[in-house]
Amino acid sequence: MTTLVRVNTQALSVTHVAYSIIGIIQAIITELGLGPKYIHENWKALEDGLTTWLEEHSLKTATMEIFTPTDSLVARVDLQISYGSFLDDERQFYSDLTAAKLAARKLGRIAQSCRYRFVVTREYWHTPVSGWSSTTLLSTEGLRRRAVGDLIGSPGIRSDLAIWIR
Questions:
Q1: How many other CB atoms are there within 10 angstroms of residue 36's CB atom?
Q2: Which CATH number fits domain 2-165: 3.30.70.1140, 3.30.420.270, 3.30.70.1350, 3.30.900.10?
C-alpha cells in the first residue's frame, strides 16, 4: 500500500511539474509579446520529453532562449530542477505564474523579430525522446544572471527560476 501511494505521488508530481514548466514558458511568451507558434508546434515533444525525464530524474534544466534572427542571445530563462523529499513543504503542489510574469518584465523589451526555443540539459543516461535532438546553448556573454527563486514545487520535485538579462 505505501508503495502505491508513493508511485501515485511521483506520477502526480511529474505531471504537475511538467505542465507547470510549459505553463510558465507560455506565460513568459505572452508577457513578452512573442508568438505562441513554436510552443504549439512542439507541444507533444515538450510534453513527452519533460514527463519522461522528470519521471526518471534525468532532467537538470529547462531553458528558454530568446535570440535575434542572427542567433545572438537577447535573454534567457532557466528553470533548474531539484529532486528529493520535499514532503515537509506545506505548499505541496504549487506554481507561481505571477513571479514568472514579473521576471518576464525584467527581461525588458524584446524585438518582435526575435525568436525563442526550448532547450534542456539532462543526465548523460537519459532516455531518448522523439522530437528532441542535440544542440548547444547560445553564449550568455554580455548577459548577467539574476535568480528569481523557487517557482514550481511538488513532493519530490522542485524548480527554481533564473533569468539572464543585459
A1: 11
A2: 3.30.900.10
